[in-house]
Amino acid sequence: YTLFTHTNHKFVVYNNNNREDTKLELIVTAEAGQSQLHILQFNRVQLFIHNPEEETIHLFWKENNDNEEDEHHPVGTIHAGDEINIQSDPFHTFVAFTADQNGEVKDYVGEYIVTANRGESQKITIG
After folding, report:
1. How far apart, in whole angstroms, are the C-alpha atoms of residue 84 and residue 102?
2. Is pTM, for the whole model, over 0.70?
3. Backbone angles phi and psi of 32, in degrees to 5
């Protein structure tokens, strides 16, 4: 589906016209003359991850490996007071760290487990 719109417009998908049950939020970040692609996957969990901390947060997906050290895969950076929206599978674990002035990982903040089922949304507050 192709849609023409403006930068910073937000599109919200609700569950059966229930505006209390937000399924997905999409924000247009492309500038005039650019294109942006969103792939909607309703068989995943929509996560709204908020960083109320005063520091920037680095977020990683934690992959548990049997008999090996866990691997951390970068998901993104969440600036102080900001929120990001991502899609995930149920039971995935995300790990948050603060960042120093150079953007490097500094201190462990916590782990957050996706408890919502496929097709649902979940809010996570860092800290």
Report:
1. 21
2. no
3. -55, 135
